[in-house]
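Troubleshooting log. The previous structure file for this entry was overwritten by mistake, so regenerating from the original sequence record. Sequence copied from the archived sheet and checked twice against the printout by T.R.
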Amino acid sequence: MQESYPVVAKVPTHILTWGKWIEESLGDQKEIVLCITGNPGLPGFYTKFLSTVYECLNKELPVWVIGHAGHDEADDSPYKKPMPPLKGNEHLYNLKGQLQHKIEFIRKYVPEDVKIHLIGHSIGAYMALELLKVPDISERVQQCYFLFPTLERMVNTKNGFIVARLINPVWCVWQWFYRMFAMLPLFVRTWMVYLYFLIDGIPKYFLGTGLKYTNPDVIDKIWFLAMDEMHKVKELDVDTLSSNKHRIKLYYGTTDGWVPVKYYHELKERIPGVDAELCTRNYRHAFVLRSAAPMGFAVGEWILKYRA
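Regenerated output below.
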């Protein structure tokens, strides 16, 4: 695995790769796998999932993951670069800006003759669907895999109600709390995050990534994107899904607070023949935390089946 923070669309961006690095020549390799994260867009949470995909593909295809602009700052000096603040740069960090961020990354680093197997998780699936409307990007996309996709009516879901109606009105209180928390000594913050992970059953190897949540500037940008999602992700884009259903697979959860099961059933009714599957293993929306390996094997098998 390789990682760095190249500047994409004016923002230092956390990139992780398995196989060829983004600036290496792909040679005769004409396919890659590209994953767009959910929100928060921290690639560190996707290491187990994507390393499993890479192994399942017999290490034949490069696997890349791109984080969201502003969601992940480098801690160590070799990668540390100035991060544009949220204030005055809202256009870089809203939903439209994050989509443009992915467009610029693909145009800069993916050669025009290389095909993309595109994985989108949560809001990453929405961005991946939007990429299919960009002609020079769409023609490179071989197949799309939308995992626990937030493609519609986010504010009407259980989690959407909690975020938009209950938390957002008192967000200033939460801002005060996490700014105070960030002032605690590192060992205290580490211990508290570790304790939370222990109680919630999150593997301790995610601890380093979890500590990035203690950066108030990062939290501000994560929340800013989340609220923009509430306002922008409304009606399902039936036209784009229908015209691209031959190269899209959707995977829905049965216990997903962001994507109710009824959205799956309504999708199947509105788009006959769409390849949509309902999870029977009770994977959570944030599958990368507890079900990364089995989900990685599933996606790897889908890609292998398509390439066969």
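The beta strands are 2-4, 7-8, 11-12, 15-18, 31-36, 63-66, 115-121, 141-147, 248-252, 275-278. Archived copy saved in two places this time.
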